């Protein structure tokens, strides 16, 4: 009886090991397919030239080696942008609770450079995460940066006071340390969901070859 139990246990162990191996292989194949898809998608692949609130030139390649959460918006936005930046800031704070995780760099790129110069961005971003970095530039530079991430931007007509609203895509982009787009989050995503997603990407991260 003991011998039969030992044989049965050995067979079960082999079967379990085989199942785990096949599952591991399947997960690796799924990750490889996703990485190839991201490379083919080429979202956010190109570099950009902008300036931060201190006037320092910034390019996307300056953030290589770091995880980045990037949001396009404008400081005169009445409600959506403040809500999204609060959510972004909260997600970064949640991730910072685990010192074992690599730091995340939050970025805010204006889609309204006519009004959002460096001083305006600095004043506006004081209300959010202390490491949230604001980026601006010329109209052409901002347009090119938005186009790299396929962000829709359209300024509405000015009112009698010269004020106007800029319609734009409401998405927060996750960029990996290799500079490649990894995920994006819309208005329906909570800060907790964004943080969990970013952590999952960190746990399964594989750099794409150049």
What does this structure look like?
This protein is α+β, with helices and mostly antiparallel strands. It folds into two domains: 1-41; 49-204, 3-Layer(aba) Sandwich (Glutaredoxin). The protein has helices at residues 2-41, 80-96, 118-125, 139-148, 191-203; strands at residues 49-52, 57-59, 67-73, 104-110, 133-136, 153-155, 166-168, 172-175, 181-185. The protein has a seven-stranded mixed sheet with strand order 2-1-5-4-3-8-9. α3 links the parallel β4 (104-110) and β5 (133-136). α2 (80-96) packs across α5. The N and C termini lie far apart (59 Å). The model has no long low-confidence stretch (mean pLDDT 88). One of its GO terms (biological process) is mitochondrial respiratory chain complex IV assembly. Disulfide bonds join 77-81. Cu cation binds at residues 77, 81, 168.
Question: How would you sum up this structure in a few lines?
Answer:
This protein folds into two domains: 1-41; 49-204, Glutaredoxin (3-Layer(aba) Sandwich), CATH 3.40.30. With 210 residues, it is an alpha+beta fold. It contains five helices and nine strands, in the order αβββαβαβαββββα.
Keywords:
7-stranded mixed β-sheet, SCO1/SenC, elongated, SCO2 protein, 9 strands, single chain, copper, 210 residues, 2 domains, Thioredoxin_domain, Glutaredoxin, Thioredoxin-like_sf, 5 helices, alpha+beta
